Amino acid sequence: MSSPDLILASASPRRLELLATIGVAARACPVDIDETPRPDEPACDYVLRLAREKALAGREASATPLPVLGGDTALSLDGRILGKPDSDEQARAWLRDFSGRSHQVISAVAISGPSGLLDACVISDVHFRLMEETEINAYVASGEGRDKAGSYALQGRAAMFVSRIEGSWSAIVGLPLCETAQLLSRQGVTPWLA
Fold first, then answer.
1. Could you say which of 5, 45, 72, 119 is catalytic?
2. pTM, whole model, 2 decimals?
3. Terminal C-alpha separation, the chain
4. What are 127's strand-pairing partners?
5. Interatomic CA distance for residues 37 and 151, integer angstroms
6. Rounded to 5 degrees, what angle do the CA atoms 126, 84, 134 make?
7. Is 40 a catalytic residue?
8. ∠ CA(19), CA(71), CA(92), 5° rounding?
9. Dihedral sign for Cα atoms in the order 84, 87, 90, 91
10. How far apart are CA 103 and CA 91, in angstroms?
11. Which long-range contacts (CB under 8 A, 24 or more apart) does 132-140 make?
12. Rounded to 5 degrees, what are φ and ψ at 167?
């Protein structure tokens, strides 16, 4: 692997893959922060706060001058923030709630670097078709959504439940690439165009 362009304050393979698609080499440096939502905290504020905290914690933990990227994604349904499911039963309940409805996926990115701490938040709407209970059970049993916000992966088998999206596909998957590329450029990291 070539020398990294930045530090990713996460162990997310999806974020590493997304960065690679725009020609940015990153080294993963996971950080541990408290991801508990604050009382009445709006979803966009929540993911922005976590992305910022991850970027700053990554900056503190890494002994490098490279920019540090923190990101976070959550779902919002009826005003509730949904992170990763605690159990298969919770995942089934959430998927039942999504069935035949739309929900929001909120994804934030923050980059700590020479230009300070820069961030962006992207909100996308995801519309699910009606799902049969057997489909929900089979999907949860596959294990694909266990470590995913909202209990599903748009880039995987759950794509068959999504009737349409309004917003950013990459943000739904875990990192808003348009905004990320713009922030990286401001921090001196030029995506694949260089």
1. 72
2. 0.91
3. 18
4. 102, 164
5. 17
6. 65
7. no
8. 105
9. positive
10. 15
11. 133/96, 135/161, 136/92, 136/95, 136/96, 136/99, 137/92, 139/95, 140/88, 140/91, 140/92, 140/95
12. 135, -145
What does the pLDDT look like over 26-57, one tens digit per residue?
999 999 999 999 999 999 999 999 999 999 99
Q: Tens digits of per-residue pLDDT, 169-192?
A: 999 999 999 999 999 999 999 887
Q: How far is CA 142 from the centre of its chain?
A: 21
What φ, ψ does residue 39 adopt, rounded to 5°? Answer: -55, 130
Q: Token pair for residue 132?
A: 């049969």
28-33 — which CB contacts under 8 Å span 24+ positions?
A: 29/58, 29/61, 29/62, 29/68, 31/57, 31/58, 31/61, 31/70, 32/57, 33/57
Strand partners, 166: 125
Dig out the tokens for 48 from the structure: 């922005």
